[in-house]
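User: C-alpha coordinates for both sequences below?

Assistant:
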Amino acid sequence: MTDDIAHPHDRFMKDMLSRPDRAGLLLRERLPEAVTRYLFDDPPEPMQDSFVDERLRQHFSDRLFRVRTINGQSAFP
Protein backbone atom coordinates (compact mmCIF):
# COMPACT_ATOMS: atom_id res chain seq x y z
CA MET A 1 0.00 0.00 0.00
CA THR A 2 1.36 3.43 -0.85
CA ASP A 3 1.07 6.68 1.06
CA ASP A 4 -0.41 8.46 -1.95
CA ILE A 5 -3.68 10.20 -1.27
CA ALA A 6 -6.11 8.54 -3.66
CA HIS A 7 -9.09 10.57 -2.45
CA PRO A 8 -7.79 13.86 -1.01
CA HIS A 9 -11.25 15.34 -0.42
CA ASP A 10 -12.37 12.25 1.49
CA ARG A 11 -9.25 12.26 3.66
CA PHE A 12 -9.62 15.99 4.31
CA MET A 13 -13.24 15.63 5.44
CA LYS A 14 -12.50 12.60 7.62
CA ASP A 15 -9.69 14.54 9.28
CA MET A 16 -11.86 17.64 9.61
CA LEU A 17 -14.61 15.63 11.28
CA SER A 18 -12.29 13.57 13.50
CA ARG A 19 -12.62 16.14 16.31
CA PRO A 20 -16.11 16.89 17.66
CA ASP A 21 -15.36 20.58 18.18
CA ARG A 22 -14.46 21.03 14.50
CA ALA A 23 -17.43 18.91 13.42
CA GLY A 24 -19.71 21.14 15.48
CA LEU A 25 -18.31 24.28 13.86
CA LEU A 26 -18.78 22.78 10.40
CA LEU A 27 -22.38 21.79 11.18
CA ARG A 28 -23.19 25.29 12.40
CA GLU A 29 -21.55 26.84 9.36
CA ARG A 30 -23.24 24.62 6.76
CA LEU A 31 -26.71 23.95 8.22
CA PRO A 32 -29.40 26.60 7.84
CA GLU A 33 -30.03 28.93 10.78
CA ALA A 34 -33.56 27.52 11.01
CA VAL A 35 -31.89 24.27 12.18
CA THR A 36 -28.87 25.52 14.13
CA ARG A 37 -30.95 27.78 16.39
CA TYR A 38 -32.26 24.58 18.01
CA LEU A 39 -28.85 22.97 18.59
CA PHE A 40 -27.20 22.99 22.01
CA ASP A 41 -23.77 24.68 22.12
CA ASP A 42 -21.84 21.55 23.18
CA PRO A 43 -19.85 19.73 20.47
CA PRO A 44 -21.61 16.77 18.84
CA GLU A 45 -20.95 13.31 20.26
CA PRO A 46 -19.20 10.83 17.92
CA MET A 47 -21.22 7.65 17.32
CA GLN A 48 -20.45 4.27 15.80
CA ASP A 49 -19.98 4.44 12.04
CA SER A 50 -22.67 1.85 11.41
CA PHE A 51 -26.15 1.32 12.77
CA VAL A 52 -29.28 -0.75 12.23
CA ASP A 53 -32.55 1.10 11.62
CA GLU A 54 -36.05 0.16 12.80
CA ARG A 55 -36.49 -2.06 9.71
CA LEU A 56 -33.28 -3.92 10.64
CA ARG A 57 -31.36 -2.51 7.69
CA GLN A 58 -27.70 -1.82 8.33
CA HIS A 59 -26.26 1.58 7.38
CA PHE A 60 -22.63 2.75 7.23
CA SER A 61 -21.14 6.22 7.34
CA ASP A 62 -17.70 7.79 7.46
CA ARG A 63 -18.57 9.91 10.48
CA LEU A 64 -21.76 9.96 12.51
CA PHE A 65 -22.58 12.34 15.37
CA ARG A 66 -25.33 12.82 17.92
CA VAL A 67 -26.29 16.42 18.62
CA ARG A 68 -28.42 17.70 21.47
CA THR A 69 -31.17 20.22 20.98
CA ILE A 70 -31.79 23.21 23.24
CA ASN A 71 -34.69 21.38 24.87
CA GLY A 72 -32.36 18.53 25.91
CA GLN A 73 -33.45 15.99 23.32
CA SER A 74 -31.09 14.13 21.04
CA ALA A 75 -31.26 14.83 17.31
CA PHE A 76 -29.91 11.32 16.71
CA PRO A 77 -31.00 8.38 18.88
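Moving on to the next sequence.
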Amino acid sequence: MESPTSSPVDKQPRYIQVNSTLEFTRLVCALERAPRVSFLHDHDGRKILSVQMDVLKEKPIVYFTPLDHNGHYLRYGLAGGKEESEIVDTTSDSSKLYSPIVRIKSLPKTLKPGNGTLDRYQPIELEDMSSLAKLTWGFEDIPFPLFLFPHNDKWLLGVFMNFHEEGTSYFCHVLLDQEPEKPFLKFSTSNV
Protein backbone atom coordinates (compact mmCIF):
# COMPACT_ATOMS: atom_id res chain seq x y z
CA MET A 1 0.00 0.00 0.00
CA GLU A 2 1.37 3.40 -0.97
CA SER A 3 1.80 6.01 1.72
CA PRO A 4 0.00 9.28 1.10
CA THR A 5 2.30 11.98 -0.16
CA SER A 6 2.18 15.32 1.49
CA SER A 7 2.84 18.50 -0.39
CA PRO A 8 6.31 19.92 0.21
CA VAL A 9 6.65 22.54 2.91
CA ASP A 10 6.92 26.01 1.39
CA LYS A 11 10.10 27.54 2.81
CA GLN A 12 10.27 30.29 0.18
CA PRO A 13 10.25 33.89 1.45
CA ARG A 14 7.08 35.88 1.97
CA TYR A 15 7.50 39.44 0.62
CA ILE A 16 5.58 42.24 2.36
CA GLN A 17 5.57 45.79 0.98
CA VAL A 18 5.89 48.61 3.53
CA ASN A 19 3.94 51.83 3.11
CA SER A 20 6.81 54.09 2.01
CA THR A 21 10.55 54.37 1.45
CA LEU A 22 10.73 56.40 4.68
CA GLU A 23 9.18 53.51 6.63
CA PHE A 24 11.61 51.05 5.04
CA THR A 25 14.55 53.32 5.88
CA ARG A 26 13.31 53.68 9.46
CA LEU A 27 13.08 49.88 9.69
CA VAL A 28 16.67 49.25 8.53
CA CYS A 29 18.33 52.29 10.16
CA ALA A 30 16.50 53.78 13.14
CA LEU A 31 15.27 50.58 14.77
CA GLU A 32 18.61 48.77 14.89
CA ARG A 33 21.82 49.20 16.93
CA ALA A 34 23.68 49.41 13.62
CA PRO A 35 21.89 49.89 10.29
CA ARG A 36 21.11 46.70 8.40
CA VAL A 37 22.17 46.01 4.83
CA SER A 38 19.47 46.63 2.20
CA PHE A 39 19.30 44.47 -0.91
CA LEU A 40 18.44 45.80 -4.37
CA HIS A 41 16.91 43.27 -6.77
CA ASP A 42 14.02 42.58 -9.13
CA HIS A 43 10.62 41.56 -7.74
CA ASP A 44 7.51 41.21 -9.91
CA GLY A 45 9.18 43.08 -12.77
CA ARG A 46 10.40 46.10 -10.79
CA LYS A 47 13.44 47.10 -8.75
CA ILE A 48 12.97 46.95 -4.98
CA LEU A 49 14.96 47.38 -1.76
CA SER A 50 14.45 44.50 0.67
CA VAL A 51 15.50 43.21 4.08
CA GLN A 52 14.70 39.98 5.91
CA MET A 53 13.42 40.73 9.42
CA ASP A 54 11.74 37.54 10.64
CA VAL A 55 11.07 33.84 10.02
CA LEU A 56 7.59 32.27 10.06
CA LYS A 57 7.61 28.46 10.14
CA GLU A 58 11.02 28.29 8.44
CA LYS A 59 9.87 30.85 5.86
CA PRO A 60 11.84 34.14 5.69
CA ILE A 61 9.70 37.28 6.04
CA VAL A 62 11.12 39.96 3.75
CA TYR A 63 10.00 43.59 3.84
CA PHE A 64 10.45 45.73 0.75
CA THR A 65 9.81 49.06 -0.89
CA PRO A 66 9.95 49.97 -4.59
CA LEU A 67 13.19 51.71 -5.54
CA ASP A 68 12.77 55.45 -6.18
CA HIS A 69 16.16 55.94 -7.82
CA ASN A 70 19.63 54.43 -7.80
CA GLY A 71 22.31 55.06 -5.21
CA HIS A 72 24.71 53.25 -2.89
CA TYR A 73 23.19 54.01 0.54
CA LEU A 74 19.87 54.68 2.22
CA ARG A 75 20.35 57.72 4.47
CA TYR A 76 18.19 58.32 7.55
CA GLY A 77 18.24 61.28 9.90
CA LEU A 78 16.31 63.92 11.75
CA ALA A 79 16.24 67.59 10.82
CA GLY A 80 14.17 70.06 12.79
CA GLY A 81 12.36 67.20 14.52
CA LYS A 82 11.30 65.69 11.18
CA GLU A 83 12.46 62.36 9.75
CA GLU A 84 14.36 62.34 6.47
CA SER A 85 15.09 59.47 4.11
CA GLU A 86 17.12 59.67 0.94
CA ILE A 87 19.07 57.42 -1.43
CA VAL A 88 22.62 58.79 -1.74
CA ASP A 89 26.01 57.83 -3.19
CA THR A 90 28.26 58.69 -0.20
CA THR A 91 28.25 58.57 3.61
CA SER A 92 29.58 62.10 4.02
CA ASP A 93 27.26 63.32 6.82
CA SER A 94 28.29 61.65 10.09
CA SER A 95 25.13 62.87 11.85
CA LYS A 96 23.02 60.48 9.72
CA LEU A 97 22.59 56.70 9.66
CA TYR A 98 23.36 54.76 6.47
CA SER A 99 22.17 51.39 5.21
CA PRO A 100 24.48 50.06 2.49
CA ILE A 101 22.64 48.93 -0.65
CA VAL A 102 23.89 45.61 -2.02
CA ARG A 103 22.90 45.02 -5.64
CA ILE A 104 21.88 41.44 -6.45
CA LYS A 105 22.12 40.59 -10.15
CA SER A 106 19.78 37.59 -9.91
CA LEU A 107 18.09 35.96 -6.93
CA PRO A 108 18.66 32.28 -6.24
CA LYS A 109 15.54 30.14 -6.23
CA THR A 110 15.62 30.01 -2.42
CA LEU A 111 15.03 33.80 -2.24
CA LYS A 112 12.18 33.97 -4.74
CA PRO A 113 8.67 34.45 -3.29
CA GLY A 114 6.84 31.40 -1.96
CA ASN A 115 3.63 29.81 -3.17
CA GLY A 116 1.34 31.60 -0.74
CA THR A 117 0.71 28.86 1.82
CA LEU A 118 -1.63 29.75 4.63
CA ASP A 119 1.02 30.00 7.37
CA ARG A 120 0.04 32.93 9.57
CA TYR A 121 1.10 34.57 12.78
CA GLN A 122 -1.18 33.74 15.69
CA PRO A 123 -2.75 36.96 17.03
CA ILE A 124 -2.55 37.87 20.71
CA GLU A 125 -4.57 40.98 21.59
CA LEU A 126 -3.09 42.90 24.51
CA GLU A 127 -5.07 44.98 27.02
CA ASP A 128 -3.18 48.24 26.65
CA MET A 129 -0.31 50.18 25.06
CA SER A 130 1.75 49.76 28.23
CA SER A 131 1.78 45.98 27.73
CA LEU A 132 2.76 46.42 24.08
CA ALA A 133 5.59 48.82 25.00
CA LYS A 134 6.95 46.31 27.53
CA LEU A 135 7.00 43.57 24.87
CA THR A 136 9.06 45.69 22.50
CA TRP A 137 12.08 45.69 24.78
CA GLY A 138 14.61 43.75 22.79
CA PHE A 139 17.97 42.26 23.52
CA GLU A 140 20.64 44.63 24.83
CA ASP A 141 18.11 47.49 25.09
CA ILE A 142 17.37 47.44 21.34
CA PRO A 143 13.59 47.67 20.92
CA PHE A 144 11.73 45.41 18.53
CA PRO A 145 10.02 47.37 15.73
CA LEU A 146 6.28 47.96 15.87
CA PHE A 147 4.13 47.24 12.81
CA LEU A 148 0.84 48.92 11.92
CA PHE A 149 -1.88 47.36 9.77
CA PRO A 150 -5.37 48.53 8.82
CA HIS A 151 -8.04 46.12 10.05
CA ASN A 152 -11.65 46.82 9.02
CA ASP A 153 -12.23 50.40 10.25
CA LYS A 154 -9.54 50.17 12.97
CA TRP A 155 -5.76 49.69 13.19
CA LEU A 156 -3.62 46.89 14.62
CA LEU A 157 -0.36 48.05 16.22
CA GLY A 158 1.94 45.29 17.37
CA VAL A 159 5.16 43.35 17.46
CA PHE A 160 6.04 39.97 15.94
CA MET A 161 7.39 37.43 18.44
CA ASN A 162 8.62 33.85 18.62
CA PHE A 163 8.70 32.62 22.20
CA HIS A 164 10.46 29.41 21.11
CA GLU A 165 12.69 29.28 18.04
CA GLU A 166 10.90 26.28 16.52
CA GLY A 167 7.46 27.14 17.86
CA THR A 168 4.49 29.20 16.79
CA SER A 169 5.01 32.81 15.71
CA TYR A 170 2.75 35.48 17.22
CA PHE A 171 1.61 39.01 16.46
CA CYS A 172 1.07 40.68 19.86
CA HIS A 173 -1.04 43.78 19.27
CA VAL A 174 -3.46 46.41 20.50
CA LEU A 175 -6.50 47.58 18.55
CA LEU A 176 -6.60 51.33 17.81
CA ASP A 177 -9.59 53.40 16.70
CA GLN A 178 -7.46 55.61 14.45
CA GLU A 179 -4.08 55.62 12.75
CA PRO A 180 -1.30 56.98 15.01
CA GLU A 181 -0.02 60.44 14.07
CA LYS A 182 3.60 59.84 15.13
CA PRO A 183 5.99 57.12 13.86
CA PHE A 184 7.40 56.18 17.29
CA LEU A 185 5.94 55.03 20.61
CA LYS A 186 7.19 56.97 23.63
CA PHE A 187 7.17 54.92 26.85
CA SER A 188 8.48 55.57 30.35
CA THR A 189 8.75 52.91 33.05
CA SER A 190 8.18 55.58 35.70
CA ASN A 191 4.75 56.63 34.33
CA VAL A 192 3.04 53.29 33.77
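User: Anything stand out in the second?

Assistant: Confidence is low (pLDDT under 50) at residues 1-7.
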